[in-house]
Amino acid sequence: MAPAxxxxxxxxxxxxxxLLDLLNRRAEVALELGRHKREAGLEIRDARxxxxxxxxxxxxxxxxxxxxxxxxxxxxxLDESRRAQSKHAETGRAESSRIDLxxxxxRRATRATGTGRMRCA
Length: 121
Fold this sequence. Notes:
The protein is mainly α.
């Protein structure tokens, strides 16, 4: 293997570890948010807030990911956050714990809205 390939793969491994840490930190905050939503009698899903998150992600994206890729990634994150909040609401657990982040939903993460923008399913 060429030295550059190995070096670049090491960089990707480090970035992947950072991404995983950030995703887990986000999941912990989402679980806490879910607890507060339950206490306030709010629904887990807030489509308006999700649209704000997607709009912000598109605005912050400087590439090389295209807007559709950013939408798909963030929709998957939002979908898993909702799923984790629902799972914890059902079990009554508000504390952070290992959750089974789904593997079935990423196929349907976004749908067309008719405005040229995607929206989480």
